[in-house]
Amino acid sequence: MSSIRPRMHPDLIADDPGAWSIVSFARESQGAQLIGRAGRRRQTPGALLSTLAPTEIGRPLPGLDPSLGVAGAGPIRLIGLNREGARRLWFEDGGRALRGVAPRVVRRWSVPDLAPGPHDYPDQDPAEALPQPAAPAALAQPVEGEVVAPGGRLVAAATKSGRLFGVAFLRLPERAVVRFVAGAAAAAWTEDGRLLAFGGDWGVMLAEPAPAAVS
Fold first, then answer.
1. Higher model confidence: residue 168 or residue 35?
2. 140-165 as b/e, with b when 16 or more CB fall inside 10 Å?
3. φ, ψ (nearest 5 deg) of residue 30
4. Which of 4, 30, 181, 210 is deepest in the core (most CB within 10 A)?
5. What is the CA 30 to chain-centroid distance, rounded?
6. 143 Cβ partners below 8 Å, 6+ apart?
7. Taking Cα atoms as reference points, which of 86, 84, 117, 112 lies closest to residue 194?
8. Beta partners for residue 47, in sequence order
9. Please, what is the Cα angle at 96 between 70 and 45, to 5 degrees?
10. pLDDT per residue over 114-129, tens digit each?
């Protein structure tokens, strides 16, 4: 397991609802917990909420497979959140920094707290060169822009068709879907596969494998 134990983000719900989830800034379900001192309303927490399996993808949907040995293949725990978005992600500096491409900016966050900066603002919009999300039917084969996890047994691919929009995590070689995060547009792993980042225009989240349940 990862040795990272940051102070939990006050606006992040760490729980993993399972293989089929949607990014959500969980609404009034927290009730009074959303109200801070002096009656001031806090920002709505970021979370993953349970949703239906994405049958529109047309791929086998076995669900989570911890034997793949990388974050996201099995249950995860969310450990970081930043509300600045990205449509492509990658780690650098030995996993100490996360970079992301958004319209007109290349962002940088420290790991694991996802504190921002410094960002770069190229003359040419870096988002213009990003590939479009693949059609669900295309996921039977490798698609442009998909990211291979360390170990080569799992890939993350963005897909979009109608109201279906998210990142599919596909087990190789059969390209079966072990996880789908609706609302996400990009994903990346550290070189050791112990941290997973995913993001979209709403922001970025950082996750690690969840602690094993004690029987």
1. 168
2. eeebebbbebeeebbbbbbbeeeebb
3. -80, -10
4. 181
5. 22
6. 131, 134, 157
7. 112
8. 24
9. 75
10. 999 899 999 999 999 9
